[in-house]
Amino acid sequence: xxxxxxxxxxxxxxxxxxxxxxxxxxxxxxxxxxxxxxxxxxxxxxxxxxxxxxxxxxxxxxxxxxxxxxxxxxxxxxxxxxxxxxxxxxxxxxxxxxxxxxxxxxxxxxxxxxxxxxxxxxxxxxxxxxxxxxxxxxxxxxxxxxxxxxxxxxxxxxxxxxxxxxxxxxxxxxxxxxxxxxxxxxxxxxxxxxxxxxxxxxxxxxxxxxxxxxxxxxxxxxxxxxx
Length: 227
Fold this sequence. Notes:
The protein is of the alpha+beta class. The protein has helices at residues 6-9, 32-40, 60-76, 106-109, 127-142, 157-166, 208-214, and strands at residues 16-19, 22-26, 82-91, 94-104, 113-118, 148-153, 169-177, 183-191, 204-206. A hairpin with a 2-residue loop joins β1 and β2 (22-26). Strands 5-4-3-2-1-9 form a six-stranded antiparallel sheet, sandwiched between helices. Strands 6-8-7 form a three-stranded antiparallel sheet, covered by helices on one side. Helix content is 30%, strand content 28%. α2 (32-40) crosses α3 (60-76) and α5 packs across α6. The model is unreliable at 219-227 (pLDDT under 50).
């Protein structure tokens, strides 16, 4: 009996994006403990909340369980109609956070939304900019995206500054409940291929063909292996 590799059973596990010291790989269960420890160590000031869903404010004894359940749920719900990428961010080999992308009806819309977080010790070092540049270059060059969206609360200028560095432009504002009973203004953002500020270094891509097939794109005509 031939035993298949896990990557053969779940093709997204083959995806890897490398840009200099930055390494983005599809999250595996073995990554979860390190990510939980990183989140428990702090992502933002206790009285701040940069996320539309305040997951980081969960009690310490619930945070890890909630994170694991979310990652497992995103994997279980992966179909061509709705899918997400949860990419573990490594910087010089150290796990630093998550770079995500989620979409619905991608084969028709060719768009989706990015989201990310970094442990506080990795913030302010240009990592957030590079990981978003790398992901967006991959989406445009290898997954045929026509645009990429994002968002940030007006009281989170650091996140909005990163978006501007990558090339995102304002795309309207909306009022959202951030925490229970708390309204916050959210700046919507959009990025198109011609506006992307690309990383200075080339991005090496592995696992593109398998991912294209998994999400329903034409795997018989893959694009080049680098951006």
